[in-house]
Design brief:
Blueprint: E1 13-20, H1 22-36, E2 41-45, H2 47-51, H3 55-61, E3 68-71, H4 74-82, E4 89-91, H5 102-105, E5 108-112, H6 115-120, E6 127-131, H7 145-155, E7 159-164, H8 175-191, E8 199-203, H9 205-210, E9 218-221, E10 243-248, E11 251-255, E12 273-278, E13 295-298, E14 301-306, E15 314-318, E16 327-331, H10 338-345, H11 349-354, E17 360-364
């Protein structure tokens, strides 16, 4: 007799929460759309849980503010549809036999960049053709265009868009980005009237800012939508970070001068004070490499994080005691920002934001007076 197992459905983490400032999100979208040029459509990229901000939350907040949404996988698209999102959704992942029927079922737009993918599609599926102009990842070689067109006509397919992806558009004056744009434009010229009535797009956040000629019919906003410049050395005054990650004090206890904290005992109290423990650790997304290098905000005080960050707990040092249950700003708002963490770890802002665990609840920030 087979043993039966009871399925347990995990609930959201209650030890911390992420707040998203909806007004700032929409303001960022308006600012970026204003830079795109008249008549250019906008896409909000909400892959990887909207860069850690909560895909459904962001998608609903931008309903009516953007033309389309971009996701990484069919599963992400289905999740948004099941949450009630009606905005057009483009799926960047290659077409796969296991999910090809879902495009029609859930009204998703596919991206095809190989003959194998074209063979899986039918005339009833809307899709965009992807060309590799220098990204070196996915997409057709532009030189294959005559053969691609032959396959499309033979199968009576109906592409609704044409796209490419820049590799270095985050920096102004990139020779590679300019060469990619030249190759893409040459391809479009070869397509002639065939490309009419199709959505043409190439520009990501960086290209919108640095290469106006890359806007075409639609621009894809990613990290800039969430308030960060695509190039970390730049600053864009009109964009504001929208995410705040918060928790509550789990414990506050006195600590004597000379006492150590956490694993490895790599921090020693410089004087008598108070040790504040929060119930969030590297399993939630506070990277262990940040140990002893960041600050968090409690009651308006920027307090140093001390000792090794552990799987479930992180410690702060304070000169004064605080109450258990008080709010702690881990990241964003009046604490450090994601790009500051990224610089400490020698990584990119994207990785910090996407690293906030999906189990943590995302919610709209309460409006301020």
């Amino acid at each position: 007799m087979k043993k039966r197992f009871t399925q347990i459905t995990a609930k959201s983490s209650t030890t911390s929460f992420v707040e998203v400032n909806i007004n700032r999100l929409r303001e960022n979208a308006r600012a970026l759309i204003g830079k795109s040029g008249p008549g250019v459509k906008s896409m909000a990229v909400v892959k990887s849980n909207a860069y850690g901000h909560g895909a459904a939350l962001v998608a609903h907040a931008l309903n009516g503010h953007v033309y389309a949404l971009g996701v990484a996988t069919v599963e992400e698209g289905i999740t948004l549809r099941n949450s009630g999102v009606i905005t057009p959704i483009l799926v960047f992942a290659p077409v796969d036999r296991t999910t090809v029927n879902d495009y029609k079922t859930y009204n998703l737009v596919a991206v095809a960049g190989s003959y194998e993918e074209l063979k899986m599609l039918s005339a009833s599926v809307s899709f965009h053709l992807e060309f590799d102009t220098g990204m070196g990842r996915l997409g057709f070689d532009p030189e294959q265009w005559p053969q691609i067109l032959g396959t499309i006509r033979e199968k009576e397919l109906r592409p609704s868009g044409i796209m490419t992806h820049f590799a270095t558009a985050d920096k102004a004056g990139s020779g590679k980005a300019q060469e990619q744009l030249r190759r893409f434009q040459k391809l479009l010229d070869e397509m002639g009237e065939w490309k009419d009535n199709k959505i043409i797009h190439a520009a990501n956040s960086g290209a919108v800012l640095h290469y106006p000629g890359a806007a075409f019919d639609l621009v894809r906003f990613g990290i800039s939508l969430y308030g960060f410049a695509p190039d970390p050395v730049e600053e864009m005054e009109e964009l504001k970070p929208v995410l705040s990650w918060k928790t509550r004090v789990a414990a506050c206890k006195p600590i004597k001068k000379g006492e150590t904290v956490s694993y490895e005992a790599n921090w020693t109290a410089p004087h008598d004070g108070w040790l504040i423990v929060i119930p969030v650790g590297y399993s939630d997304g506070i990277r262990r490499g940040l140990s002893n290098r960041i600050k968090m905000n409690v009651r308006g005080m920027r307090l140093p994080q001390v000792g090794s960050i552990t799987m479930d707990y992180t410690m702060l040092f304070s000169d004064v005691a605080v109450e258990t249950g008080e709010i702690v700003s881990i990241l964003g708002e009046d604490a450090m920002q994601a790009d500051e963490w990224a610089r400490i770890l020698d990584t990119i802002t994207y990785e910090i934001l996407c690293g906030i665990h999906p189990k943590i609840e995302r919610m709209p920030a309460a409006p301020k007076d």
